[in-house]
Design a protein that fits this description.
A 7-stranded mixed sheet has the order 1-7-6-2-5-3-4, sandwiched between helices. It contains 12 helices and 7 strands. The chain is globular and about 50 Å long. The chain is of the alpha/beta class and 300 residues long. It has a domain at 17-136 and 216-295: 3-Layer(aba) Sandwich (Rossmann fold).
């Protein structure tokens, strides 16, 4: 009966998150409702959700929106920054029931907060037969680009390049670059290793001058994954979850998506923890997304 005990950890995990605390606003700070947001999803193909990775309310909102979108739209795919393109086969095997969760967790390299924050999304997709796109670039290639520059990727084998978007990559926009390095300067006194959504490797002051290339590779990889799915399923919709920096203001990943699949209709959502909760902070939040969820502040 040993198998019973091996299954217990998985069975004891919750597949749901608590109801989120949030106030919802449009880009200009006008209060709005979830029903209005859901109506806006009817006319787009990709819904970007930008999170702060340690915000429990953002994760609860993702689960809530995935449920609502599943009820409203089919075919629907869940796309995630939290899994890398070279584990797509493992993801598919798990969703189809071929492999156990323990094997999936061993081979898919999930983030350390997977069980608490992202497992409910994957399990919902598994139960409701939604594809899950492992959208991010493999970290080893992000680190290569960040150390040696984007041109280093061209020296990889054909098999390795199959996990990447087409090379050479289009450069990040000047607006995105300016925003990226301004954020790096703001964060420099802090422990930068805890902010995976804005830093792909050590900052330039540590002798690394290609960090933007690593960030650009992540953005392009997620966009390319989404574009390929929409090309294969032109009547489908994609709900894509990433760190807010990758999609706020329509920069980063949405910019690359416009290049890979011109005319793609997108809706940008952003969850912003704030000391001013539930009020909208116009100076910091206006224009960052089509809809902004203001959530209670979180600890660093």
């Amino acid at each position: 009966m040993l198998w019973i005990f091996l299954l217990l950890p998985a069975l004891m995990l919750s597949d749901s998150l608590p109801e989120p605390q949030y106030a919802l606003y449009t880009a200009d700070g006008s209060p709005t409702t979830l029903d209005v947001l859901l109506q806006a999803t009817d006319t787009v193909e990709v819904i970007f959700f930008g999170e702060t990775h340690n915000d429990p309310n953002a994760h609860a909102l993702e689960a809530l929106l995935l449920r609502k979108l599943t009820e409203r739209h089919r075919p629907l795919a869940l796309s995630m920054e939290m899994f890398e393109r070279d584990v797509q086969l493992v993801m598919d095997e798990y969703l189809q029931g071929f492999i156990r969760e323990r094997d999936f967790l061993r081979d898919s390299r999930p983030w350390k907060n997977y069980r608490t924050d992202y497992r409910p999304l994957v399990e919902w997709a598994k139960t409701h037969t939604l594809p899950v796109l492992a959208a991010n670039a493999p970290a080893r290639y992000v680190h290569l680009a960040a150390r040696q520059g984007i041109q280093a990727l061209s020296r990889l084998s054909e098999q390795a390049r199959a996990f990447l978007p087409p090379l050479p990559l289009h450069e990040a926009s000047s607006r995105y670059r300016s925003k990226f390095f301004a954020e790096m300067r703001r964060m420099m006194p802090r422990d930068t290793t805890a902010h995976a959504d804005t830093l792909a490797s050590p900052p330039p002051m540590h002798g690394n001058f290609h960090i933007m290339d690593g960030q650009n590779l992540r953005d392009a990889s997620m966009a390319y994954t989404i574009a390929l799915h929409l090309i294969a399923y032109p009547s489908g919709k994609v709900f894509h979850v990433n760190g807010a920096f990758h999609s706020d203001e329509g920069l980063g990943t949405p910019e690359h998506l416009r290049r890979f699949r011109p005319g793609t209709r997108m809706l940008i959502l952003s969850a912003r923890p704030s000391e001013t909760f539930p009020d909208f902070n116009t100076e910091k939040m206006a224009g960052i997304a089509d809809f902004i969820f203001v959530t209670p502040p979180v600890e660093d």
